[in-house]
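Journal club side-thread
Mid-discussion, someone asked how the predicted structure for our own chain would compare to the paper's figures. Pasting it here so we can look after the session.
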Amino acid sequence: MPVPAAGLARRVRAFLRKTSRVGLVVYALGLGAGLGLVSADWATRGRYPFGGVTVGPWTAWPRAGASNADPYARAVNARRGEIPLAVGEGLLLSATTDDTGRGLEAGCRYSIAGHTPPARAWTLTVTGRGAPDPARPSLRSGFTSTEILRERDGRFAILLAPEAQAGNWLPSPGRSGALRLALRLYDTPVAAGTGSLDPETLPAITRLGCGA
């Protein structure tokens, strides 16, 4: 028995309403999932998103290795493949800018000079974002407190640059791109509290120039 034209039109409209609702639900779910993945990637790609104490260009992360560290800090550690310093073992400080607030760039030259807070030992390392340059030879990525050349008053100066420099040369991991410095203090009294930190107790980061 043929369906009247008016009835067929109603059925078509009802079908379209149902499919539009389903499409809207699928779109909302897809959008939410996409935004969630993008925000999670952004929050765990660089440094820890929460819990930092800023001192000049350096940011201290006293709770990064705590047993009750927030989920984002744990995700950052897992993504980097790093084992953070536990509370009492030491303190991590990182820097992505120089003393004037300009971002650290692999194509520029920097002086990292001064003192560090009291510590049994320390390391200073540099990393860049993205995959390493396969055409660039594997050179040192940091210094330790036992191998650094110092002045008579105990001060030191590390030269971060893409090309070889006299003295304590720390090669840039690439010819371009953003850089991150990580200063790790081991067995240091400031690990118990960052209130004693100030710019005078940490190395200054000064841009010396960019390009050839």
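Post-session note: The mean pLDDT is 75.
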